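ok so for the tutorial part 2 we go from a plain amino acid sequence to predicted structure tokens. step 1 is just haveing the sequence, like this:
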Amino acid sequence: MKEEETSMEDNCKCIKEALTSACQEVVCLKKHHHKEWISTETLDKIKERKNKKTAINNSRTQAKTVQAQVEYIEAN
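step 2 — the prediction. this is what the tokens look like for a chain of 76 residues:
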């Protein structure tokens, strides 16, 4: 019984790896190449603003929305 379970798990792993590698070859993962003139600090600030904007959009109560908007304004 143990051997059958192990072989099934191994088969599943092999199939998953084969599908993953085939998809990566066909579709290719897009690598984000940022412009050289944009510093990492600027990219971090952009990401922070984006996260704060998402927090505004995802807030459910008006109080949380106002708080998220205040944080967003301070980030600018």
